[in-house]
User: Fold this.
Amino acid sequence: VRDAMSLIYWIAFPRMIHDGSPSAIVDTLLHYGATGVAPRGGVGGRRDDAWGAEHTKACLDAGLAVHPWVFSYPHSVDAETALAERLVVDEGATGYIIDAEAPWNHDSDKPYWSGRAGEYGEKLRKALGNRPIWDAPWSHIAWHPSFPILAFDEFVNEHCPQYYWTEHGISLDVCMARCSLQWARSWCVKPISPIGVTYGRSDLERL
Assistant:
């Protein structure tokens, strides 16, 4: 589990930071007091080439933890596992984040995904060993009863729900109270480390 004082920045578009220069990204992160970074590693099993091994090395050399995130689909767990192994084992990233959102919800034309989530966990643990694995699911977990959160809870080290209060049209205080209550009632046993507004409208005065 991370130190409570850690500050990890989520980056979706590295090239927006000085055209993606590894050294400039490191300098920017350190300027804002970061202790780590969560860059987009890919979508499904497809690598995002905006963040490469050179970025991970530059961050690690500067003492920054690196936790790439991959937008996840139930049908691509094998490809995602291979990508996770490349990012973490081969390139040295600190840990791995599963950005599990709408594709993991159940609806009328697809099955429940608890079994697939459990399978994903087994594959990831075999590939990554005891390295940190987090997920980044829905903030209002009670509003997604078919989401297989308990299956993810079996193998992740912690949950990082996306507390995007600006996108939900509510205040930070309301978001924290409402979402934290829902997670407290979710039967999950792993620690909860919410993510602030990292995608969408900014609310920098509240961060």
In short: Residues 114-128 form the longest helix (15 residues). The chain is about 35% helix and 15% strand. The radius of gyration is 17 Å. The longest strand covers residues 36-43.
